[in-house]
Amino acid sequence: MQKLTYFVSIIVLFSLNVVAQEQQSDRNSVLKFTPTRLFRGEILFSYERMIAEQASLQISFGPAISNVSPFDLDHLINSQSYNATQNSLLGYTLSLAARYYPLEDKDAMEGFYISPVIGINQLNYTYSFYTYNPNPNPEPYPGSPVKALDDQRGYSKNTSFAFVFGTQRWLSNSFSLDLYLGSGLKLNNTKSFYTNYYYDPNTNQENFWWTEQNYSDVSWFLTMGVRVGIGFGHRK
Fold first, then answer.
1. Which of 141, 177, 180, 182 is most exposed by smallest CB count within 10 Å?
2. Which letter, b or e, does each residue of 41-78 get, where b requires 16 or more Cβ atoms within 10 Å of its Cβ?
3. How many CA atoms lie within 13 A of 149 on its CB side?
4. 112: β partners
5. Residue 74 CB contacts under 8 Å (≥ 6 apart), including other chains
């Protein structure tokens, strides 16, 4: 599924690049939004500023919501007939990129560019665990969930470095279309929890507790997307 998504995304990016009618712009700054990152739960904004004839800097920032996926409809962890869930919390994403526009007939913020990017992304979670009330008489009603353990907070944090290639086209003097594709490495750090269960036959009691997991790894990743932008300011 992931490979198919990448393949379709490449076709879409290529099609947009062919269809877009490029125009000239005299803007020196552009504020952008990346709609393709909504699929990852990120509301990502970017600000690019021209700093030299063929160079610019771009900073990207925005909130990130965990557990956003059309293929993940429940957040069940592990249960043994009980309900342990990983719930969404608000995180963040932040990156800084230097852009070089090598084509001699183009100024910065126009046409093909090469860009090293450093970034940090953190998704936050709460872990909750409920059992069901076995007593048929008192409140809460039979079968209603009862919190058995205190909530725990976890996260998934990655620090990344990537090389990105792209093209920025101006559809009018103040409206830009930025198409990009790249790859890199990221260091992942994760803190998560799962539940343990023990039945004591001597007391006829069920005992539950959280176990914390911490791990880190390095992985390769592919990034691609489309940014739409509004230009402002004038070049000297």
1. 141
2. bbebbbebebeeebebbbebebebbbeeeeeeeeeeee
3. 22
4. 167
5. 85
Strand partners, 124: 155
Residue for token pair 């994760």? 190
Cα 41 to Cα 45: distance, rounded to the nearest angstrom: 13
Task: Name the β-bridge partners of 64.
Answer: 42, 91
Looking at residue 232, its pLDDT comes to 92
Identify the helix (H) or strand (E) that includes residue 115.
strand 111-132
In total, how many domains does the chain have?
1
Q: Are 233 and 29 in contact (CB under 8 A)?
A: yes
Output the pLDDT for position 23.
Answer: 64
Residue 175 CA to residue 169 CA, distance in Å, equals 9
CATH code where residue 227 lies: 2.40.160
Enumerate residue ranges in the chain where pLDDT < 70: 1-23, 69-82, 132-145
From CA 174, how far away is CA 186, in angstroms rounded?
34
> What domain range includes position 200?
2-232
- The maximal CA–CA distance of the chain, rounded, in angstroms, is 83
Tokens found for residue 100: 């070089």
Position 211, amino acid: T
- Please provide residue 31's backbone torsions phi and psi, each rounded to the nearest 5 degrees: -105, 125
Distance of alpha carbon 122 from alpha carbon 159, whole angstroms: 9
